[in-house]
Amino acid sequence: MNFNWPVRVYYEDTDSGGVVYYANYLKFMERARTEFLRHLGFEQDQLIEQLNIIFVVRFVQLDYKSPARFNDELTVTANLIELKKASMLFEQKIFHQNDNVNQQANILCHGQIRIACLQADSFKPCAIPQSIMEVAGVD
């Protein structure tokens, strides 16, 4: 399942050299995953209130290839590549919006992020709700 989300680089996202601070790529990716869930019809605050679940980052692997700079318009992908009982693995990429046609050759940052499903009140692992599994294409 592929999903793209636009992000603009603000001054606050950059370091003193005008380049996006490395940790902010994780923030961009987090926004894309949140919007991915919203696109599927799930709001994270409602998941907590109604189902007592939260999604947390369990694993991150990033490869920085080229810098983004202040005021750049970026596209952040959130591609679900693995769905298990209690976790999701996303492949995520960031590239300039005008590089949509040739995005593979112009990746700024590439990563894999594993998200775990936890009970909100105990932080213990739990199964991803069936409603999410069904929308994501898994029975």
Secondary structure elements and pairings:
Layout: E1 4-8, H1 24-40, H2 44-51, E2 53-64, E3 73-77, E4 79-83, E5 87-96, E6 107-119, H3 130-135
Antiparallel strand pairs: 1-3, 2-6, 3-5, 4-5, 5-6
What do these coordinates show?
The protein has 139 residues and is α+β, with helices and mostly antiparallel strands. It has a single domain (4-135), classed as Thiol Ester Dehydrase, Chain A. The chain has three helices and six strands. The protein is elongated and about 45 Å long. It starts with a strand and ends with a helix. The model has no long low-confidence stretch (mean pLDDT 93).
How would you describe this structure in keywords?
139 residues; Thiol Ester Dehydrase, Chain A; six-stranded antiparallel β-sheet
CATH architecture name: Roll
The H/E string reads EHHEEEEEH
Runs with pLDDT <50, length 5+?
none
Output mean pLDDT: 93
- CATH fold topology: Thiol Ester Dehydrase, Chain A
> How many discrete domains?
1
Kindly report the name of the CATH homologous superfamily: Hotdog Thioesterase
Query: Structural class from helices and strands?
Result: alpha+beta
Helix content: 10-25%
Global morphology: elongated
Question: How many beta-strand segments?
Answer: 6
Report the CATH C-level class.
Answer: Alpha Beta
The N- to C-terminal Cα distance equals: 15 Å
The fraction of residues in strands falls at: 35-45%
As a whole number of angstroms, the C-alpha radius of gyration is: 16 Å
Number of helices: 3
How can the largest sheet be summarized?
A: 6 strands, antiparallel
